[in-house]
Amino acid sequence: MTTTPVAEHAAHPTTIDSVVIRFCGDSGDGMQLTGSQFTETAAVFGNDFATFPDYPAEIRAPKGTTYGVSGFQVHFSSRDIHTHGDDVNVLVAMNPAGFRTNIRDVHPGGIVIVNEDEFTASQLKKCGYPDGYNPLQDDDLLARYEILPIPMSRLTRESLADSEMGAKAIDRCRNMYALGMVYWMYDRPLDPTIAHLNRKFGGAKGKPEIAEINIRALKAGYYFGETAEVFPAKMRVPPAKLEAGTYRRISGSEAMVLGLVTAGHKAGKRIVYASYPITPASNIIQGLANLKRLGAKTFQAEDEIAAVCAAIGASYAGNIGVTGTSGPGLALKAEALGLAVMFELPLVVIDVQRAGPSTGMPTKTEQADLMMAMHGRSGECPCIVLAPRSPGDCFGMAVEAVRLAVRQCCPVIVLSDAYVANGAEPWRVPDLDDVPAIEVRHPSRAEVGEDWLRYTRDASTGAPAWVLPGTPGLEHRIGGLEKGEDGNVSYDPDNHDRMTRLRAEKIAKAAEVIPPLEVRGPESGEVLMLGWGGTYGAITTAADALRARGRSVSSAHLRYLNPMPSNTEAVLRSFDRVVVPEINSGQLRMLIRSRFLIDAAGINIVRGRPLNVDTLIERVTELMDGEGGAA
Amino acid sequence: MTTTPVAEHAAHPTTIDSVVIRFCGDSGDGMQLTGSQFTETAAVFGNDFATFPDYPAEIRAPKGTTYGVSGFQVHFSSRDIHTHGDDVNVLVAMNPAGFRTNIRDVHPGGIVIVNEDEFTASQLKKCGYPDGYNPLQDDDLLARYEILPIPMSRLTRESLADSEMGAKAIDRCRNMYALGMVYWMYDRPLDPTIAHLNRKFGGAKGKPEIAEINIRALKAGYYFGETAEVFPAKMRVPPAKLEAGTYRRISGSEAMVLGLVTAGHKAGKRIVYASYPITPASNIIQGLANLKRLGAKTFQAEDEIAAVCAAIGASYAGNIGVTGTSGPGLALKAEALGLAVMFELPLVVIDVQRAGPSTGMPTKTEQADLMMAMHGRSGECPCIVLAPRSPGDCFGMAVEAVRLAVRQCCPVIVLSDAYVANGAEPWRVPDLDDVPAIEVRHPSRAEVGEDWLRYTRDASTGAPAWVLPGTPGLEHRIGGLEKGEDGNVSYDPDNHDRMTRLRAEKIAKAAEVIPPLEVRGPESGEVLMLGWGGTYGAITTAADALRARGRSVSSAHLRYLNPMPSNTEAVLRSFDRVVVPEINSGQLRMLIRSRFLIDAAGINIVRGRPLNVDTLIERVTELMDGEGGAA
Amino acid sequence: MSENGDATVSEVKLSAKDFASDQDVRWCPGCGDYAVLAAMRKALPRLGHKKEDYVFVSGIGCAARFPYYMDTYGMHTIHGRSLAVATGIKISNPDLKVVVVSGDGDLLSIGASHTFHAMRRNVDLTIVLLNNRIYGLTKGQYSPTSEYGKITATTPEGSLDYPVNPVSFAAAAGCTFIARAIDVDQPGLDEVLRRAIEHKGTSFVEVYQDCNIFNHGAWFYASQKDSRAETTVQLRHGEPLVYGKDRDRGILFRNGRPIKVTVEGGASASDLVTHDETDRSRVHVYSQMSHPDFPEVMGVLYANPERRTYDAMVDEQVRNAEVEDREAELRRLMKGSESWEVHETVDGPS
Amino acid sequence: MSENGDATVSEVKLSAKDFASDQDVRWCPGCGDYAVLAAMRKALPRLGHKKEDYVFVSGIGCAARFPYYMDTYGMHTIHGRSLAVATGIKISNPDLKVVVVSGDGDLLSIGASHTFHAMRRNVDLTIVLLNNRIYGLTKGQYSPTSEYGKITATTPEGSLDYPVNPVSFAAAAGCTFIARAIDVDQPGLDEVLRRAIEHKGTSFVEVYQDCNIFNHGAWFYASQKDSRAETTVQLRHGEPLVYGKDRDRGILFRNGRPIKVTVEGGASASDLVTHDETDRSRVHVYSQMSHPDFPEVMGVLYANPERRTYDAMVDEQVRNAEVEDREAELRRLMKGSESWEVHETVDGPS
Ligand SMILES: Cc1ncc(C[n+]2csc(CCOP(=O)(O)OP(=O)(O)O)c2C)c(N)n1
Ligand SMILES: Cc1ncc(C[n+]2csc(CCOP(=O)(O)OP(=O)(O)O)c2C)c(N)n1
Ligand code: SF4
Ligand code: SF4
Ligand SMILES: [Mg+2]
Ligand SMILES: [Mg+2]
């Protein structure tokens, strides 16, 4: 069935186990598409992979500027990998600005494929190189990297010389030309991309001529690799040995959307997702807006406050109210979260964290909203807090969030982040039957009997019932004022003290139904690297590497931040030292220290980027060898 | 000059050192006025005192209901006291609802003066007593308390029988009648109250006839005491031995207002106070609105977000921008506080805490916003946090807030609470000259030179300069996006890491200019009771009492919560055990544990009321004697 | 709930008492809110919907205590956000009858944006604004409807901002039902409340409400028996705008502006404006009629039952899209457009 | 700053270049924002105020990047809050010239309440709304001015809420200056920007701005050379509302509603409405004129320089109250109305 050249030319490529490749260029150069296509192909080929798309806050910053550079990194491997990779093995730079901003991430000796046609005096100047300087002639750089200048613009044009399409459309095919070359280098099939292009431009959109020139450019790039012999030997990254099953590529946002609708289905409820657009959370509302066929309702509110309030209203009326946002939006929702805590209604709140404070760096990642999620409300106002550790894990955490919100009748905050949401990995598609049902009960007058009060609690969960308006005979009022057990206003001092404790106990009780904290590596030893959220890959890889070097280092990752798994303290106490790497100034560390009085050390790097495995290895090694670390 | 009976009848009263008296009745019974007048008189007489006004959230709840009861407690003494007193020695109850809700706070053997005319069947029923029951005939109560039923309604009417005023106006004088009786009991001068009544109803308001009947009722009550011999012996509470100086009675809100305008004066700046009304913070905007003569500008904004934003704008344009609110309002301001942190402009934010979460119990006190003040914003977003410990201390803390905000160019959050704001105490009026000047500098182009950048930092403070629009040649842009040193947008990862650290260091640097933490009692020992905010009085009194009983207990009070005084850790480590009593679930305790890894224990009582001295003594004793305590 | 998306009609005959909850009413004696509560409790039984299908929603303020006193479902939310919560309720379950009752501060100051956007969307709910031109619960600060120059707790020298005109506000937002009534006028209240609740779409009722503690008499010009005939015009669809104790005065419109005229012997009545509640453009003219220059209009100013409601359309989009076999569709979705199989310890495909 | 509260007039002649900051402009190539920036840079030098007296304030969005590109003082605040910050600036220092530039989402969705209240107060500032009927910066979700049924990232089946009419909104808020222009019309922009900035009070300018990435062509009906004459009417005070390539059509008002007529040989021109920018009531009629039923009005719709500004009145109240000797007054205040002296170790007064 394969009509692409793969079968014919897969002669004797070198086999290697992992490659990190990064595509970069102007925001308009289609780098996100190129990267995703490469990923898709790696996925279908059977590699494990992890991706890191990185783009500017500007929609389409002026061409050729450094702040307009868009990048997409893919780490693909025949091993089980966890990160997008620290160092780049192959950089594809479509213009000087891309080259300039990305070259320092390339591993010494790495391959750098550049579109030399763009390295003109004016372009070089635009991205800030000194007059007369051309990095492609810089001996230092040439010595450090294997720089391959290729006239991609010209080659693309030539390969499409007979096309009727305009010059602009043709120039837009450069990314496919580049992708074709890279496919050749790594001995990849072209099929998935060809199919994608046909899907994208054929059918409804009805621009098959666009599909055609893109496919031709892709193939031309591939043949160039074959013919020109400018590239080092063809390389092969065999499929990874993953657990058996059906796999797909999934991004964090996609997994979150899927998790929500799955949870809704399992609860027999609609998801009502109310949100206000904000990077990097907008993909969730956009994803759900396309899932009306599964009963999801979306509401683009006038602001974040309206969004969370509408979600509260939706839960009150009997659906699963969910709201999602990023840090500044969560700050705005604080007051309404207090109301939800008082109401004791199910509510899911997703915070896709980005670099702050304030507007900060909206497209960059960070983990600095943990303390806000824990404590950012007036009064004693506890919520459940969860955090997915990887793109695929968003599915499970979304289901957990709904399950716990419904069970405990309280807000559950899910702390995702830009890296998790935008990144992608292979995901073993679970069998829908394996996702446990979410039990929902709405009492009727007959069921509850006469003595029942609105805030009578279930002894096992500590939560009151979820009573729906429309139920005859259970009319009642709820509010944000302190309430007695009947839901009416109470200013009784002892009642307030009791209610405060009951609300806290209810959250703590969730610990009874969450899985224990697992340790990767030996269950006791010198150092435990403890993480949460999107740093899972980096921490796990670093700890594995340290163990491979013979160091006594294990790792553990908290997906449940509040309450924490019941065995957390026991796990931590089994190690001489707990080290908490975070993309913040030490927020989980603070929780660990205050709860357990354990002198946890921190590795805190707040650069708006995922943590670097090498840096973690270095810092933990220093710490173990006594050279300090930010305790 | 004294025309009141005091001089004549001050025969041989018994001398005692302290009395706690509480007036209670319907919201419409004028109990707040009665209490303040008693306080004013105690003040002028020279007692030390502390007050606790306690009123319902409803403006004027239906007459006779328990939730419509308004109370005012005064503790006055010839000693140096710190709290409004746990147990009431004398309760004045103007109606059965007041009696019912307050009787349990009366010390066994205490005097209970009731207006027996109001103890009718219908009134008794309204406040929920069972049919046919009258507490004034309850033998248990009569045995436990010295209950004095007095027909105050009738006596007031009789004393004003010849007045031309209507029945309603006459009935409204009952509170003055009651006050007169109590003045007799405690041998107090009537002058201050008479002067007050004349001031209030004379002059501009022009209702001297109202003043007259009130004064007559007051005197009639006094003479009743003299004649009727229903009261136990007249008692005398001599003036307290306070430090020499000029004193006045001051409430927390008054002191806050005064502190702000004083700070403005010392900085040579206007105070621009932008706020949205909310209990119990509204008194501050209302106080400042009346101080236009001192240059204060007030702005009632459309909501709390607009208020904080306007305050930021005001600071930007060169005045001292201040905003004030209570918990739910602070939650709303979170996003804008992040902006102020990014801008690095001076800003003062006052949170008069009330019982939460959500709307909670708006007129009741609590200390549960500390963690929100510390961490309730997205990203790494540190602010300075201060907390006055008593009504008078609000003056000093307001001045400190302005001083630190201007010096460090950052938001300073002041955590007051309902108890501190509404309570009153004698306050030694400082000499204005003793309040140090607040240095403000706004650079000009000439001063900064050519190389200067907007976010160049002063080495000693870590803060950038406060540059004003209107300054020729220093035009620049600031924003909430991460910035380079020039203020322009920067997405550079290392810059973000650096800026995050610089903003944190700047806040930490404030520790260099704040006073050390002081210990009351021995500087080391078994237990240190550590507090913050409005619990100062209760903690101090409890610790003093424990020491008096020979226990090794000292106390210390943090007025600077972030950064903490540099000697904090040293102070804490000098004691075997640190106990942190708080009206929350353990927020300062959490900070102490995480920072210093000290196993601080908590005493956490969340009843919407100030802590009880006896309870503290009991709990600390238990703790020391090994009977537990909530660790 | 019925299948066809309408709240079903109650079979048992209910009375005003059935709509009274067991909670003591905690407003100040003499507060205008009592009258509105009484009118509401009386109006609902006659609409025939079931008690359990009503949800009263409010923000914070004196007015906002309203839900506690109705024996229906009720939510006392937070300051200014009632309409956002109410919108969520309707999106979630369009069959519920949602009535928002709150104050002028709540709905037009902190909540102004949500009020505006709910109206713009035409969410099917009723908004009853208890306008006392003051902040009651927080003890007498000026509100967005307070008159210019008002002396209040926060404005000892007089307020400096111009009041919002609630009717203009609603009209600019495209609200599909706009009405006005006075607390002491029970028949007037009864009519507008019932029509508002029956209206499909966002209905807005401004009630002139006396706060007898902090702003007593603010509406006396319109509410007192002796002056009411001169200071208000009761609108009736199809009837001319006539007012005055002797019904001898009337209103006509010229160049988009109202003009007061005297009706001589009823002859010139034909020149007067005939109220047409379906004509949105005249709401603007009505909004200009304010005391003391003009009598103020009372009753239903505007009613447009044609525009579809937001919640119904949201529901429709979803119902049109929904698949029969959700489970199968979900399985498909989970697999995604591209998936691949991994078998135990494979070593490469070729 | 001068003593009399007006920003002083610049002595050096400035050019557009002087108002350009050193920052690269980061909008998409072809974005309509560029034209507004160019017009602003050109307009300011001719107003004669000093550079340092301008503060440009914005919220968040593509449009909101504006301040970075002006070499004046500038604040890029947070989403929706620009007017609250700007109000604080003016209260603090009424002498500054404050110009707010932001997008339709920023000013009319999350920021709607602040926009409304600033206008209601008549704070002396200029609001330039860059209306592209879309959320640009967050990549193409529908905005409060998007047309009903619009297909966007969040509304794949079409949006369901009715758009805000910015002009009606401003009119309902009592805004004292209302104008409209199109990004590509430099003379039109120049006029309204200059007049808006010179206006004392809140001035509002709606600019039809093309987002050529997410909503390209939204305004083509009004902005394209070939159709503009038919789809827009340029307002000029005192002149009739005439439009059309051959200026052969006009507008008249009847019963508060606009009507299109053909002007035969210029004869019936006298029946046409003459634009009177001081007449607020006609803003309402103008706001009803929308494409495709009517040509849309451009230029200054309304200008009322009479109403005093909020910031000036706040300032005046304070200046009237301020005492000469602040120090003495403060000492008095500190002592309060009742104070007493304590002397060392006293034991009671009598
Ligand atoms: C977030 C928040 N801000 C402020 C308040 C304080 N507050 C309660 S009600 C109210 C205004 C009340 O005025 P209005 O809405 O007109 O109702 P009224 O009491 O006059 O009926 C305010 C400012 C609050 N509860 N929450
Ligand atoms: C509190 C908050 N919510 C949401 C966002 C995300 N956000 C940034 S700009 C924007 C809307 C942009 O639309 P508009 O105001 O019309 O400006 P444009 O980009 O179209 O010029 C949104 C939703 C944010 N930055 N902050
Ligand atoms: S304060 Fe005014 S509005 Fe509130 S309950 Fe009392 S009278 Fe009514
Ligand atoms: S996205 Fe649209 S509005 Fe934003 S810069 Fe690009 S073209 Fe302009
Ligand atoms: Mg009100
Ligand atoms: Mg826009």
In short:
By secondary structure, chain A is α/β, with parallel strands linked by helices. Chain A has 23 helices and 23 strands. In chain A, helix 9 packs antiparallel against helix 10 (208-228).
Approximate shape of chain C: globular
Q: Whole-number average pLDDT of chain C? A: 93
* H/E element order of chain C: HEEHEHHEEEHEHEHHEEEEHEHHE
Strand content of chain A: 15-25%
CATH class type of the domain at 9-218 in chain C? Alpha Beta
CATH 2nd-level architecture of the largest domain in chain A: 3-Layer(aba) Sandwich
Oligomer type: heterotetramer
Mean pLDDT of chain A: 93
Major sheet strand order of chain C: 2-1-3-4-8-7-13-9
The structural class of chain C is alpha/beta
Radius of gyration of chain C: 24 Å
Give the helix level of chain C as a range of percent: 25-40%
Low-confidence stretches of chain A: 1-10
Number of separate helices of chain A: 23
Q: Please state the second-level CATH architecture of the domain at 9-218 in chain C.
A: 3-Layer(aba) Sandwich
How far the N terminus sits from the C terminus of chain C, by CA atoms, comes to 60 Å
**Overall domain count of chain A:** 4
CATH topology of the domain at 9-218 in chain C: Rossmann fold
Q: Low-confidence stretches of chain C at least 5 residues in length (pLDDT < 50)? A: 1-7, 346-350
Strand content bin of chain C? 15-25%
Structure commentary:
The complex is a heterotetramer, with 2 copies of chain A (631 residues) and 2 copies of chain C (350 residues). Chain A is of the alpha/beta class and 631 residues long. In chain A, 38% of the residues lie in helices and 20% in strands. In chain A, the strands form 5 sheets. In chain A, strands 11-10-12-13-15-14-21 form a 7-stranded mixed beta sheet, with helices on both faces. A 6-stranded mixed beta sheet of chain A has the order 3-4-2-5-6-7, with helices on both faces. The longest helix of chain A is centred in the middle third of the chain and has 21 residues, at 208-228. Chain A is globular and about 85 Å long. Chain C has 11 helices and 14 strands. In chain C, the strands form 3 sheets. An 8-stranded mixed beta sheet of chain C has the order 2-1-3-4-8-7-13-9, sandwiched between helices. A 3-stranded antiparallel beta sheet of chain C has the order 10-11-12. Chain C has a two-stranded antiparallel ribbon with strand order 5-6. The model of chain C is unreliable at 1-7 and 346-350 (pLDDT under 50). Chains in contact: A-B, A-C, A-D, B-C, B-D, C-D. Strand 17 (477-479) of chain A pairs parallel with strand 2 of chain C, so a sheet runs across the interface. Bound molecules: thiamine diphosphate (2 copies), iron/sulfur cluster (2 copies) and magnesium ion (MG) (2 copies). One iron/sulfur cluster (SF4) is lined by residues 27-28, 31, 33, 62, 132, 136, 211-214 of chain C.
